[in-house]
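REVIEWER CHECKLIST
Item 1: Sequence provided? yes
Item 2: Single chain? yes
Item 3: Sequence as submitted:
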Amino acid sequence: MVDHEERNQERIPPQVRFKYIRSFEDFIDWSYYNRKKFRNTFASGIVGLVTLFNTFYIVPFGHEGVVKTFGAYSKTVENGLHTKVPLLQSVKMVNVKNVRTEEFGYRTIKADVRSDVLGVDNVSNYDRGLLEEIVNDQRELGYSIEGGNAATQVASLLQGEYLHLTGDLNIADVEFALQWKIKDAAAYLFNVKDPRKTLRDVAEYNIRLITGDRSVDEVITIGRGDVEFQSKEGIQKTLDSFSSGIEIVALKLGTTNPPRRVKAAFDSVSIAKSNRQTAVNSAWSNYNQIIPEAMGNAQKIIKQAKADSTNRVNYAYGDVQRFNETYKEYANAPEITRTRMYLETWDILLRNIKIKAVEQKGAEGGILLKLDLDKNKE
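Item 4: Structure as written out by the authors:
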């Protein structure tokens, strides 16, 4: 039995049969005579390729694939090669490793060794196109920005972000940056309608709550670390209550100053406080140096006085003891003891006299000898 394809080949002129193709023109002729079969084969190949490419997909490193079936969440897959049902399932790739940054009160135009930072004071230095991009970005997030040209709008936007009311009813300029990343791709896509706007609103709410409970001095100087820590914890807690799938990596306070119109006066007060603290520290330094030395000298004098007191008491006891012994001798032989004491006294006195004169008793009287006893000793 002759196959249907073989019968068709027999009806095709020999010069256009596939095995006789020698040139492009022959291929065109063969395609024309086999156009129905060629169309079916081509269509089947296209459908096969489309099906193949829609069945297999690769999730890049650092991403998660969120699989939806008929538009509803189905599962989350890690990086690598995966399969899905064509036409019925779709996959959304979400970068979960990239750390993103939201800035409040300023915008970093170029991050480099010399960062180009746009703030209220230098808005006029930037071209209109860049300023309009910032304004449009905020409008896309749902914020209302009205009035003036682009420079005025950006200045008003930044001012609204950095002006904070402190607990002691002062105003502080607080600029900060929030670094975040996605920790749950499915929650990020499905649980919050606009994750970025939600993040910015939650961040502003929490940091204003913290700064509003502290004095301006704490916000600007001594309490910056505490403001950063508590604000970060509050933001994360609020986002977790929404199951937003967002993780706060860091919150860094930038420039924190009093309002620009009173900054000079505030700086003068800060300098005065610093000088006062310097004087207090210097006084304490002198105190710590002089007082211990004085106390040491006092202790030394007290110890010396106690030593002298002990010596005097001991000498007194010795004198009493000698007196008692002498008295005993005197009671036994008064005349001899009296003579001995007389001679001992003169011996003590004569030791300190260099020239001695001896008076002769008798009829003529007068000085008999004038002796230099110390010289004679030599």
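Item 5: Key structural point noted by reviewer: The chain has twelve helices and 13 strands.
Item 6: Recommendation: ____
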